[in-house]
């Protein structure tokens, strides 16, 4: 009888341990500089919901929006070192680390958002994904960030001549610094979270970004002149620490990849709606939208390409991008 009781207790304990193991959950942290409700934040949250559902709760994703874990430069290092597992960040800050990421950051390379989608969803996008692995990262998805344009507190910009002498905040990327210099203005690389106060206090005259960022960061309050020059159509990148990804089973890796792919469609839908909403909001608040003659801006970019597209691999990529119809 004692033996039977011991056996029963042992079986119950084993079953309890197995149940505990089965219900154990691995929580992955993801960073984003944008506020709660922003399309990229919602897309990563949607990714997390799909992962949780498709792994029967074995994995969950916590999204830290509003730069809670730091600005982009800091969180890039965190995800590369494995301090955090996931990160949604602009492509441009990787230009000095992953040379292939230079191509999507080049001004006036993409003809439209549709052109960018075809490029990033195809072989060129896959080539860039492979290159990121050398930096210890796995690219799970490319998200939309629309077109970036200049805005400032001083005056409307209708031509390249209007750019002369103005000070603009740019992403921490040499391409962006050189792009602004080629237009006769002065570039100041600066964390995203410092831009509002820098414009307000006159440290800079303005910045460059898309309508949703211009809106949600409230830059329209301090820089009323928005020039729709659309110099870059720069995709965002959603990355995972390579070592963390490698720890997943092959089945779970496929789940993560498919969840990320599904989140792209969600993000693009949210993005299109947000662009329209944000433009209407800033115009209602008094922002003045001007549309300059882009050809002068395009012509001014020759030295930027001459400096940054010297590698044969990058030259071929630029040709391939332009050939995509």
Automatic annotation (TrEMBL):
PROSITE patterns on file: PROKAR_LIPOPROTEIN (PS51257)
Record keywords: Plasmid, Signal
GO cellular component terms, semicolon-separated: outer membrane-bounded periplasmic space
GO BP annotations, alphabetical order: transmembrane transport
One protein family per Pfam: DctP
GO molecular function: carbohydrate binding
Domain of life: Bacteria
Name this protein carries in UniProt: C4-dicarboxylate ABC transporter
Species the sequence originates in: Sinorhizobium americanum
């Amino acid at each position: 009888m004692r033996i039977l009781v011991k056996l029963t207790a042992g079986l119950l304990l084993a079953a309890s341990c197995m149940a505990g193991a089965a219900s154990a959950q691995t929580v992955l942290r993801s960073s984003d500089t944008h506020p709660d409700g922003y399309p990229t934040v919602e897309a990563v949250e949607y990714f997390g919901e799909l992962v949780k559902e498709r792994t029967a709760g074995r994995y969950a994703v916590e999204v830290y929006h509003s730069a809670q874990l730091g600005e982009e430069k800091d969180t890039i290092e965190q995800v590369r070192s494995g301090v955090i597992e996931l990160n949604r960040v602009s492509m441009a800050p990787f230009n000095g680390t992953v040379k292939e990421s230079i191509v999507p950051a080049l001004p006036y390379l993409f003809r439209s958002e549709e052109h960018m989608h075809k490029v990033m969803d195809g072989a060129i996008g896959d080539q860039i994904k492979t290159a990121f692995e050398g930096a210890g990262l796995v690219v799970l998805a490319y998200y939309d960030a629309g077109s970036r344009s200049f805005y400032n507190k001083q005056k409307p910009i209708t031509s390249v001549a209007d750019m002369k002498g103005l000070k603009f905040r740019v992403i921490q990327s040499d391409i962006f610094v050189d792009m602004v210099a080629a237009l006769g203005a002065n570039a100041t690389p600066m964390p995203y979270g410092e831009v509002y106060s820098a414009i307000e206090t006159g440290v800079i005259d303005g910045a460059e970004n898309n309508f949703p960022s211009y809106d949600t960061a409230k830059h329209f309050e301090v820089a009323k002149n928005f020039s729709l020059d659309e110099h870059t159509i720069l995709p965002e990148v959603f990355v995972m620490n390579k070592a963390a990804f490698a720890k997943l089973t092959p089945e779970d890796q496929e789940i993560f990849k498919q969840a990320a792919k599904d989140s792209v469609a969600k993000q693009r839908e949210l993005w299109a709606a947000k662009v329209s909403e944000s433009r209407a909001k800033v115009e209602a608040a008094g922002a003045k939208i001007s549309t300059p003659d882009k050809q002068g801006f395009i012509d001014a970019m020759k030295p930027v390409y001459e400096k940054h597209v010297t590698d044969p691999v990058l030259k071929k990529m630029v040709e391939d991008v332009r050939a995509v119809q």
